[in-house]
């Protein structure tokens, strides 16, 4: 994968912007999108993510395992930047190293009162810019 | 469907916010997300949408026909509001009434120099708020 895109993905994913989403799908091709709050890209191909709500996203990931994160920065409707990070679920931890690591991050946020149900562990399969449109 | 959510969907979809996305999927459950610029919710259950780029989204819609729009307003990282509109592709016009209608809208935007390839016609199947998280 392109090193520049990896660096940008790390920066934008790890900032935990309020505009970060994860799109997933069930076996009948029903697509869902959810705002995701707490995640960390821990190396070039791994993202760990706190699951406290997101029931439908969780069910979809258990069914098909695939998704795409979008971090979209719009600067109040003026300009558009961001990244698309395509992922596959590798693990779903309810305890362990990654669970503890994402719980520490969760505990430092306004979501600290939510029970951490799962730590999703994703393999990054592809990274794309926000738009491929050529003028 | 809930009338309040329908009204909110119309308002937010029809504003054509820069942060509007459409998530779709292919037959192998590979999910994609694309920023979508020109669309109009013309009644309680119909959205028409200009396709000039979005090649992968177009291919996905032809394969599985399902998707979800998200309009997410973040007020520069302070607050979060928006709507999720779940859709199914009903028609894909390269001419006709809806094609002409969305072309008129496209022509009034900064994207007017792009060739309008398709007008996607979607049936709205479900509308949800951005988050279902209960505190």
Automatic annotation (TrEMBL), chains A, B:
It comes from the Bacteria. Gene3D superfamilies: Electron Transport, Fmn-binding Protein, Chain A (2.30.110.10). This is Pyridoxamine 5'-phosphate oxidase putative domain-containing protein. It comes from Candidatus Syntrophocurvum alkaliphilum.
